[in-house]
């Protein structure tokens, strides 16, 4: 792989960047001009290391992580100026999470632009991880255009506003295990025990794992998930909602 991009690839990236609908005159002008140094950065953000060990998205992803946290902090400062530092940290963790990045990547259709090597192409288990990482690298490349988070916020603030309102209305849905642990501690109970059983060996099966939650020796809830983590989270969410319905929380 060289750093030379053919015309077809330049046009693909240009069309993709336009589709982000970032309301910035200077960004629109840069994309319209197809400035090669800018296009090269975005191209690099869309190359997985399985395709090229040198020119790939890893450095831009590392850079994008810091940019994303700064842009999210900027959004929270503007939108929720009265929020405490602890509340800001909690909200920021939610709106810059790996799950959120993967969701954003799916929304903008980034996968069709990612260049992968043969090993990654057939690996369904790494698909979502690569989408999230490339999306973070894209954010790093966007910052590099102007050495500014302005375009990042112009793009993401509206998305974050919607996500934040959902989170703030029902935070337990996003941190159910933490809420359940804190509830047990407040009652003087031992921490909840999560027991996992693998009921399917099919990758991606939403019912691959079943999780039972025990509190003080009693089985309180069960739920399925495609991973250990998801099954535990789902079971905790079910239990929190159960406790809320009967007034325990």
Would you spell out the secondary-structure blueprint of this structure?
Layout: H1 7-19, H2 25-33, H3 36-44, H4 58-79, H5 85-95, H6 98-108, H7 118-121, H8 127-146, H9 150-169, H10 176-186, E1 193-198, E2 209-215, E3 218-225, H11 228-245
Antiparallel strand pairs: 1-2, 2-3
Helix pairs in contact: 1-3, 3-8, 4-5, 4-8, 4-9, 6-8, 10-11
Structural commentary:
The chain contains eleven helices and three strands; from the N terminus they run H-H-H-H-H-H-H-H-H-H-E-E-E-H. The chain folds into two domains: 7-168, Ribonuclease iii, N-terminal Endonuclease Domain, Chain A, CATH 1.10.1520.10; 176-245, Double Stranded RNA Binding Domain (2-Layer Sandwich). The chain is mainly α and 249 residues long. The protein is 59% helix and 8% strand. Helix 4 (58-79) packs across helix 8, helix 4 (58-79) crosses helix 9 and helix 10 (176-186) packs across helix 11 (228-245). The protein has helices at residues 7-19, 25-33, 36-44, 58-79, 85-95, 98-108, 118-121, 127-146, 150-169, 176-186, 228-245, and strands spanning 193-198, 209-215, 218-225. It has a three-stranded antiparallel beta sheet with strand order 1-2-3, with helices on one face. The mean pLDDT is 91.
The CATH homologous superfamily name of the largest domain equals Ribonuclease III domain
Computed Rg: 21 Å
**How much is the average pLDDT?**
91
Q: Given this structure, which CATH class of the largest domain is correct?
A: Mainly Alpha
Percent helix, as a range, is: 55-70%
How would you characterize the largest beta sheet? 3 strands, antiparallel
CATH architectural name of the largest domain? Orthogonal Bundle
Shape: globular
- CATH topology term of the largest domain: Ribonuclease iii, N-terminal Endonuclease Domain, Chain A
Q: How many separate helices?
A: 11
Strand line-up of the largest beta sheet:
1-2-3
Structural class: mainly alpha
H/E series, N to C?
A: HHHHHHHHHHEEEH
The stretches of 5 or more residues where confidence is low (pLDDT under 50) are: none
Number of strands: 3
Count the domains: 2
Strand content: 5-15%
Tell me the distance between the termini. Answer: 57 Å
